[in-house]
Amino acid sequence: MKKVVIIGSGIAGATVAYYLKGQAAVTIICKGNREDSNSMLAQGGIAAVMKGQQAEKGQEPDSEAEHVADTLSAGVFHNQPKAVEKMVHEGPQVIQDLIDQGMSFDRTAEGQLDLGLEGAHSHKRILHAGGDQTGRQLTSFIHDQLTSVKWLTHTFALDFVIEDGRVVGLDYLDENHQKQTIFADYFVLASGGIGHLFQDTSNHATITGDGLAMALRAGCELSDMAFLQFHPSLLDGGKKVQPILISEAVRGAGARLVDEHDCPIMVGRSNQLDLAPRDVVSRIVNEQIQAGHKIYLDISDVVHFSQQFPAIASYLQQNNLDFATSQRIPIKPGMHFLMGGVKTDFSGRTGLNRLYAVGEVAFTGVHGANRLASNSLLEGLSFAKSVAEDILAYRASASQNHQKLKVRQNSVSMILPSRADLVKRTSETLGIIRRPASIRQFLAWLSTFNYQHLDPTCTDREQIETANLCLVAETIAKAALARPESLGAHYLLPEEEEPHESTSTGKN
Ligand SMILES: Cc1cc2nc3c(=O)[nH]c(=O)nc-3n(C[C@H](O)[C@H](O)[C@H](O)COP(=O)(O)OP(=O)(O)OC[C@H]3O[C@@H](n4cnc5c(N)ncnc54)[C@H](O)[C@@H]3O)c2cc1C
C-alpha cells in the first residue's frame, strides 16, 4: 500500500485523506488538536451551484457560468479561468458525495438547500450548516469518516527530506518537542495560510505560514504572493477580546456598514454597496478608520440575527458586547486569506517530485487578485479530490527504504527579530495600503537577520514559527515590489504620494 503523509487537518488535508480512504496508508500531522485550523472557523459557508436546486420565486436560476463569471470578476480577471471552471464544475460533486454520506446542510421548510448570499455573488449560492458553523460541521464530518487514518497531533512539521530531487521524508517535532523523521511515498502540504504574520487576523493561532516556508526551503516555486485578502469585518471589541470574524453572510442577510453617526459608508462608493468585493470594502473601512471614525455593522435589518448567526451571537454575549439593544457590532479589517501560494498543477503536484500542495497553502490560480467569498472551502474540496486521485493513479518505482538516510544541513545559527516587532512592521508595510519605499525599508530591516534555514538543533516552536514568518514576509515584500501596479487586494500608493518615512531600519 502507498504511504502518504498529509500535513494539516483542515478541509484540504482531511478531504485528501477521505478520498484515499482504504486505498493508502495515511498519516495526518497537525500542529495542535485535529480541530485547530481555519477550516473549523469558517462561518459563511461554501459557494456551489448544486444540481436540481430550484430558483427562488421571481429569480433567474443560477448557473456554473455565472459562478465562474463572479469569481473572475472579484479576482479582477487575474485568475486562471481553466482552474476556476474546474473548481466550479467539480466542487459540487464533492459536496454531493458528502451529502450522500450523511453531511447535512441547512435547508428550508420545503427541503431545498437554504442558500445564502455573500459579497460579489450574483445569486444566492452559499450552502451553510448550523447557521454560521459551516466549517466546524463540514470538517468534523469529514474527520469522522477517517477511521483508518493515523493522527499525529501536537506535531510540528519542520522541513522536507529530499533525495535525488524527490521528497522522501519529513522532519518534525513530536508532542514532546523531540526531533523525528517520517518517511513515505507521497507528501501532501495542506498547512493553510499566513494569518499570524499580521496583528489583526481572523486566523487560527496555528496559522503561521510554516508550509510556505518549508516549500521555499525545499526549492518550490511560489506564485502571486503579493495578493493577501483583508476581510472588512473582524470584531473590534477592544484589546481584551479576540477579534473573531463577523461573517460577510451578515451583510448578505441585510447588515450595513455605518460610522458612529449611523451614516452608511458604502453609499456612493460602489454599485454593489455593502456587498462589493472584499478588497474594495476593506479599503473603504480602513480609510474611514484612518480618518478617525468608528465603523459598525448595523444589523437592524437582519431578521432573527441570533438564530441565523448563533456562534457570533454567543461570542458577543460571552464577551458582554451588546448588539441586541444597539443593533450594532463594532468592526475593523484584518488579515484573512492568502490568494498566492505553492504553485501546483490541476492535480496538486508541485515542482518537487512526490510533493503535493492543496488548500490555502497552494496556488491553483482560482482566486486571482481577490478571492470571491466562500470559494475557499470549495477549492479545498475540489482540488483535494484531484490530489487523492493523482496519488492513487501514480505509477512509481517501488518505495525504497530511506530509514538510513543521513542527509542533513550543517548547523546554522538563526538570528531573529522578536515576533511582536516582525508582526508590527509587517502590518504597517504589507497591509491594505502599501508604499514601495516602506517595503524597501522593511526588506532592508529583514536583511539584518538570519532566518533562511532552520537551525537543525532548534526545538523551540515559537522561534521556528518566527523564522518561517520572516521568510514568508520577505517573499511577500519582494512580490509586492515586483508588481508596481495596484490590482485587486494588492494596493500600492504611487511613489509621489508617499509620506516621509520615519521607520528605522535597525534591529531591536
Ligand atoms: C474565521 C474564518 C472564516 C472563514 N469563512 C470561510 C467561509 O465561510 N467560506 C470559505 O470558503 N472560506 C472561509 N474561510 C477561509 C477558509 O476557512 C480557509 O481558507 C480554508 O479552511 C483553509 O483550509 P486548509 O485546509 O487549506 O487550511 P486550514 O484549515 O487552515 O488547516 C491548516 C492545517 O495545517 C496545520 N499546520 C500548519 N502548520 C503546521 C505545521 N508546521 N506542522 C503541522 N501542522 C501544521 C494547522 O494546524 C491545520 O491543521 C474562513 C477563514 C477564517 C479564518
UniProtKB/TrEMBL annotation:
Molecular-function annotations in GO: L-aspartate oxidase activity; steroid dehydrogenase activity, acting on the CH-CH group of donors
Catalytic activity: L-aspartate + O2 = iminosuccinate + H2O2
Classification via InterPro entries: FAD-dep_OxRdtase_2_FAD-bd, FAD/NAD-bd_sf, Fum_R/Succ_DH_flav-like_C_sf, Fum_Rdtase/Succ_DH_flav-like_C, NadB, Succ_DH/fumarate_Rdtase_cat_sf
Cellular localisation: Cytoplasm
Its EC number(s): 1.4.3.16
Single GO BP term: 'de novo' NAD+ biosynthetic process from L-aspartate
Key words, A-Z: FAD, Flavoprotein, Oxidoreductase, Pyridine nucleotide biosynthesis
Pathway of action: Cofactor biosynthesis; NAD(+) biosynthesis; iminoaspartate from L-aspartate (oxidase route): step 1/1
Stored PANTHER family: L-ASPARTATE OXIDASE, L-ASPARTATE OXIDASE, CHLOROPLASTIC
Pfam families for the chain: FAD_binding_2 (PF00890), Succ_DH_flav_C (PF02910)
Sequence ranges assigned to domain Fumarate reductase/succinate dehydrogenase flavoprotein-like C-terminal in this UniProt record: 462-491
Lineage: Bacteria, Bacillati, Bacillota, Bacilli, Lactobacillales
Cofactor(s) named in the record: FAD
Keyword Oxidoreductase: yes
Protein name as it appears in the record: L-aspartate oxidase
Record-linked SUPFAM superfamilies: FAD/NAD(P)-binding domain, Succinate dehydrogenase/fumarate reductase flavoprotein C-terminal domain, Succinate dehydrogenase/fumarate reductase flavoprotein, catalytic domain
Predominant localisation class: cytoplasm
Key word RNA-binding present: no
Domain named FAD-dependent oxidoreductase 2 FAD-binding: residues: 4-377
Family statement drawn from the similarity comment of this UniProt entry: Belongs to the FAD-dependent oxidoreductase 2 family. NadB subfamily.
